[in-house]
Design a protein that fits this description.
Blueprint lengths: L2 E2 H6 L13 E4 L9 E6 L5 E6 L4 E4 L2 E5 L5 E5 L7 E8 L2 E8 L7 E4 L12 H18 L18 E6 L4 E4 L2 E5 L2 E5 L5 E3 L4 E10 L3 E7 L4 E11 L6 E2 L4 E5 L9 E8 L2 E3 L15
Parallel strand pairs: 10-12
Antiparallel strand pairs: 1-11, 2-3, 3-4, 4-7, 5-6, 5-8, 8-9, 11-14, 12-13, 14-21, 15-20, 16-17, 16-19, 17-18, 18-20, 18-21, 21-22
Length: 291
């Protein structure tokens, strides 16, 4: 059964998406010695925090300087699938600081089985293929290293397909052809072959290639500050590397290239080296004020 976006959210298909916590918001108690800071987001494994603070402020996560607030004072922080029970965010600007410790809720990720995959896409052994995979890892690593100075995440995201069915939830432990594999760091959206994939938010194309071994047709979009979304298994690519895209622009078409048993879009999101659930960002918005 194919569901529209509305049907997915209000019908039985919605149960396949890890529901975010009640929208969390935190506002800094202002005083002359602290940096203004407001946060909101989904504070759970695979979730995120969107923040507003002083423009250009340096953002530390668990003691490590990881990003800088935009000219509008906006920033994003992601929580990995296996994030611990809390994350400490510290903002520094003009000799002042603000600190917040966020409680990160655990999530019970499901387990899914996928059978019928070509053995070369599960446990490759051919030396030439292994060499190709290593080359492609290097290419993807370069794409994920993109860091544009932008805050295109500020108005959240929309779904990249108009009509789809969630066929595999984000974060599920995968068993491929009976072999335990890494967790699935994407949400699979089954849709008819050739369905148009659209940019869910503004950004710049950081990587595009039609013939990756595992991913098939692959596109990466940089939304700023290391937040990158990924679009796998495309049958056609309609963008070029370096191109600026706006929300709703066509990226390509749904296919079943790479490691796939049917036509679908695998939608992924990373913040730096952390894997996030992109569905949690649908409808999100950064704090409007810090007053």
């Amino acid at each position: 059964m194919i569901a529209t976006r509305r049907a997915l959210l209000v019908g039985a298909g919605a149960g396949l998406i890890a529901a975010p916590l009640a929208w969390a918001q935190d506002r800094n108690d202002q005083d002359r010695n602290s940096v203004p800071l407001a946060l909101n987001g989904a504070w759970r494994q695979g979730g995120y925090a969107l923040g507003r603070t002083t423009p250009g402020a340096l953002i530390f996560v668990d003691g490590e300087a990881l990003t800088t607030a935009s000219a509008a004072g906006l920033f994003v922080v992601g929580f990995d699938r296996d994030a611990g029970p809390n994350v400490r965010i510290e903002v520094r600007a003009d000799g002042r600081t603000a600190r917040r410790t966020l409680d990160i809720a655990p999530y019970a990720f499901p387990s899914t089985r996928v059978n019928g995959l070509p053995p070369s896409t599960v446990e490759p052994t051919d030396p030439a293929l292994l060499e190709r995979i290593q080359r492609e890892i290097a290419l993807k690593t370069e794409g994920f290293a993109s860091r544009i100075d932008a805050d295109d995440f500020r108005d959240g995201f929309v779904w990249p397909l108009e009509t789809y069915r969630v066929s595999s939830a984000w974060g599920a432990q995968r068993i491929l052809n009976g072999t335990p594999a890494r967790p699935h760091y994407g949400i699979d959206l089954a849709a008819p072959q050739g369905s148009v994939i659209r940019a869910p938010a503004d950004g710049r194309i950081a990587f595009v290639r039609p013939d990756m071994h595992f991913e098939g047709g692959l596109t990466l979009i940089d939304h700023g500050q290391g937040l990158i979304t990924c679009y796998l298994h495309q049958s056609r690519l309609d963008v070029q590397q370096g191109q600026r895209v706006r929300r709703g622009d066509p990226l390509g078409r749904v296919g079943m290239t790479g490691r796939a048993t049917g036509p679908h879009l695998c939608w992924r999101m990373k913040w730096r080296d952390r894997n996030l659930d992109p569905s949690l960002m649908v409808g999100a918005q950064a704090p409007k004020t810090i007053a």
